[in-house]
Amino acid sequence: MSAQSLPRPAAAKRSLPKINPVYVLVAALILAIIVMNPAFGEPTGYMNFLKRVTALAILSAGALYVIVSGGFDLSVGSIMTLTVIGSSMLASNDPNSTYWIIPLMLCIGAVIGLINGLVVSYLKVPSLIATLGMMITLNGVAFMWSGGAPRGYLPDTFRFFGRYNITDIPVITLLPVAVICLVVFGTILWWGMHRTNFGRMLHAVGDNQQAARLAGVPVERVRISAFVVSALTAVLAGVILGGRAGVSVDIGSGFELQAITAAVIGGAQLLGGRGSVPATIAGALALEAIFTLLNLLGLAQPVRLVVQGLILIGAVAFATYQRKRAGR
Amino acid sequence: MSDVPTIEMRGISKSFPAVKALRGVSFTCSRGEVHALCGENGAGKSTLIKILSGVYRPDNGEVLIDGQEQHFKHPQEALLAGISVIYQEFSLLPERTVAQNLFLGREPMKNGLIDNKAMVAETQRVLGLFGVRHRIEPETLVADLDVASQQMVEIAKAISLNAKVIVMDEPTAALNEAECEVLFSLVDQLRASGTAIVYITHRMREVTRLANRVTVIKDGEATASFDHVPAPDVIVRAMVGRDISEYYPEPATSSEIGPVVLSVSGGTNAALRDINLELRSGEIVGFAGLQGAGRTPLAMALFGAAPFTSGTMTLDGKAVHLTSPRDAIRAGIGMLPGDRKAQALFLMQSVRDNGMLTARSFANPFGGHKANRFTDLTGMNALLDQMKVRAPSYEQEMRFLSGGNQQKAIVARWLALRPKVLIFIEPTRGIDVDAKASIYHLMRDLARAGTAVMMVSSDLPEILGASDRIVVMREGRIAGEFGRSATEAELMLAATGETGVAA
């Protein structure tokens, strides 16, 4: 390799602050939605949009931990399903149950993440396969638990996080609790990824696992932690989604791929080493905004799937192209 | 020798959007000569070769082959005109056989099917031309060959294409001593058979051994051209543009060498037999030997990455049992791996993050990334400054740095932890002359500050120039120890085990 392949001005250009294209994309999409549906510009419009996107946004930010560490977590959708089904089965309409059910669900989530991480780190099962197996298993568990049809209801105390709006607030008039959750958990996940030693180790492991081990990074612990974070955010996302949408047997299905898509739209590097929590949340907003647009255009669910698939392929292809152009 | 040179490049200039890569460079090479092309990394050697081989087109100047002006638009055209380039990174397909690689894209056909027999026979003939017929079987998969043999296959491919000109881009970079010798005699044979050879290197030994003529490129210009091979220091001075009399720092004085820091007795594992070793503070110990002699496994054993299965190891007099790099780092041992890209670099992370990583790995994981008990961002900046890492910003991603600067940044990673023992594996591989000197001085500075430095290297002049003591390994054992006054011949004899035939 010679100096010609790393020309100076190109290097200088890179050090200028570069805005992630995802933010431009989100702005453009929102603008398009407002043009098509001016009511979206009202607080009820955009707040409901944010409320709808919260579960996916938190989930994506958590899944990003695994992606940055160089893996995939396909089990998150099934964890959401298990959370919703399990909570409804345990709650038996007792409003006070929420206070122990949510911690219990978080513990179950942590155990699932731990198992994912251990299987990937020590049994050396590729994460795609390990978490796919976990996804099938958990869907089965949820199905058995519910007996095949949703029974029981989620008490209002549980649904508070996903459904309740704080009203009579000046300027914005209403504020969904879900949006507060998004800000709180988004901030925590941002801090963990971008402001701690753990976050930097996560990036290093995803960038070059062998080098990370030789540099003293506790590679296994870091990877396992990433799966635990991912599983915990899936439980949180499940609580919020269940709160908003109620109980159904396949409530979380498809979320695992939406989360990966959101991260990729946000510029995360599949196979690890690069990713941003704010950009991933913006990626989730962009994905939801695209779905909203498709709805406004009167296009149905199948189209949604086609579009999501194409976005995933397109975003990865675009990122790969950019990487190549950057000379790697 | 005919009057018309096989290749003649006249007044070649080439600019890239950012940088003027070549300015009016002229270069010729004739039948039956080896023309060495020297220069530091980034001087413009590769650009010149890429113009010769049709990868780039020059902005100005002309390329003549056998006196005919040529305008190659594609590397394939240059190849057909008889110009074969053997790059450092091979273009062989690993999952194909040697014969299939040789005939890639021009397989002999018989009745509409590939004529395997003819392919194998011709491959055998070509390999026979330079006496490696017994070493390489035409039907072996390339992936199963070692690096040196793969290079032979590349050269065989060039010969089977009837190349008039063979360009070799730092061909010895991945070869050990014995393999280098095989390559050198091959180059001699090619020269004798009338091939024009352009040989790119920055190892002076190879220039002296092989070249008929030498051209030095610096900053995109041919700064010196010699029709005979001058003394190495003349070439080196032309390459770096200054005198490098202090290329290797002064060795340690006896008062600088301190107590034993690390000792191994009877260290054994799958790759190592009965290693007895002492590393002292203030001392640089060079480890020489052929590829596969066990030098890297020894480093990996000391570093806990591939531990000893029996034997004892002490650090500062206390017995230690290190079973992971993490253990070793915690105990005070650091290591700079030989394959930087695969084992040391985080190319997508910033220079500073690369430097901070080890310190962060031993700090509270939930602690802020800006400061820990070993160093902080300012401290790391200072270390990177001290290492003279050249980067537009330490926020720059690692992949944009040159090999030398990457290596220096990795050194900074260890400086932050102040290890008692620091192991360098091939510390200057792929690094230009200037950066090499600064790595040697750095090792010396570390030793002066009390670190025990272990240096594994396949570069004998480097072993002799930079070490206070030299350990030669062979077949997993320590085959001999020498002072810094040893000669290359002595080390080679110990490394190959052919004692007593000193010529």
Structural overview:
The complex is a heterodimer of chains A (328) and B (503). Chain A has one domain. Chain A is mostly helical and 328 residues long. Helices cover 72% and strands 3% of the residues of chain A. Chain A contains 14 helices and 2 strands; from the N terminus they run αααααααββααααααα. Chain A has a two-stranded antiparallel sheet with strand order 1-2. Chain A is globular, with a radius of gyration of 20 Å. Chain A starts with 7 loop residues before the first helix and ends with a helix. Chain B has 503 residues and is an alpha/beta fold. Chain B is built from 17 helices and 22 strands. Chain B starts with 6 loop residues before the first strand and ends in a 7-residue tail after the last helix. Chain B folds into 3 domains: 234 residues, Rossmann fold (3-Layer(aba) Sandwich); 165 residues, P-loop containing nucleotide triphosphate hydrolases (Rossmann fold), CATH 3.40.50; 68 residues, no CATH class. The longest helix of chain B is centred in the middle third of the chain and has 16 residues. Chain B is 33% helix and 25% strand. In chain B, helix 4 crosses helix 5 and helix 12 packs parallel to helix 14. Chains A and B meet through helix 1, helix 9 and helix 10 of A and helix 1, helix 10 and helix 12 of B.
The biggest beta sheet of chain A is recorded as: 2 strands, antiparallel
Decide which structural class fits the backbone of chain B: alpha/beta
Strand content of chain B: 15-25%
How many strands, which pairing sense, and closed or not: the largest β-sheet of chain B?
6 strands, mixed
CATH class of the largest domain in chain B: Alpha Beta
Largest interface: A-B, 41 and 53 residues
Tell me roughly what share of residues is in helical segments of chain A.
Answer: over 70%
What is the count of distinct domains of chain B? 3
CATH fourth-tier homologous superfamily of the largest domain in chain B: P-loop containing nucleotide triphosphate hydrolases
Provide the number of structural domains of chain A. 1
